[in-house]
User: What shape does this take?
Amino acid sequence: MNQLIRISQFAVIALLLASCAPTSQQIKEAVEKDPSIVFSAIEKAPDQFIEVVMKAQQNAQKVAAERAQQEEQKQREEEFKNPLKPEIETSRVIFGNKSAPITIVEYSDFQCPYCSRGYQTMKELKKAYGDKVRFVFKHLPLDFHPLAVPAARYFEAIAMQDHAKAEKFHDLVFENQSQMQGKGEALFKELAKKSGADMKKVEASLKSEKITERINADSEEARKFNMSGTPGYLINGISLRGAYPLAAFKEIIDRQLSAKN
Assistant: This one.
C-alpha cells in the first residue's frame, strides 16, 4: 500500500505540475493526509496514470544506468592509472603466449552459463590478438552451483601433470556444460579421459590440499577486487565484471597496446 501511494504521489505530481497548480510539497502533504485523493485520480484516468508511471519508471532506469556507466568509466580510468595486481604463480596454467603483453585473468565458475558465454568471447580474443594475449583461469565457484568446485578440482588435478591437457579439459567442460545437470561429476571423469590425462594420477590428486588452497586463494582474491559474481576479468589490471561483449575487451586491449607502442 505504501509503495502504491508513493508511486501514485509521483504520478499525480507529474500530471499536475505541467499546469498552474499547488507546489509538489503541498500535493505531497495533501496525499499523505488523505490517500483517497490518489485513488480517486486513478479511477478517473487509469490509462493516463499507468502511462505516467511507466514513463517515470523508464526514466528512472535510464538515469540509473547512465549513472552506473559514469561510475564504471570513472573507476576504469583510475585503474588505468593504478592497475589491480592479481597474483600469477609460475605453477599456474597459462593459455597462450606466456610472454604476451596483455594478460587476462578470469575469475570463473565452470557451471555458470555466463562463464560459458565468456569462454566464447575469450576464443574470439585469441583469434583477434593471437600471441599478444595470454589467459589465466582462476576459480570463483558460486555456492548455488554444486558442480563448480568438483570441476575446478579436476582442472587443477590435471594441471598437476600437464598444463596443455588441463587447458583441453577446460575447453571441453564449457563446450559440454549443458550435460552437467544430467551426468554430474561423471562428466568430468569422461572429459578428463578425453583430454588425455592419466586418470590414476588424477584420482590421486583430486583430494590434494594444494588444490583446496588454490581454489580458496582465487576466490579470496576475486572478493578483494569486488568480484562477487562470475565471470570477472582483469585485463592487465583493468576490471570487467560480467560477460561483456567482445567490443568491451577490445577497447581496453587496444588502448593498452597503443600505450605500449
The longest strand covers residues 102-108.
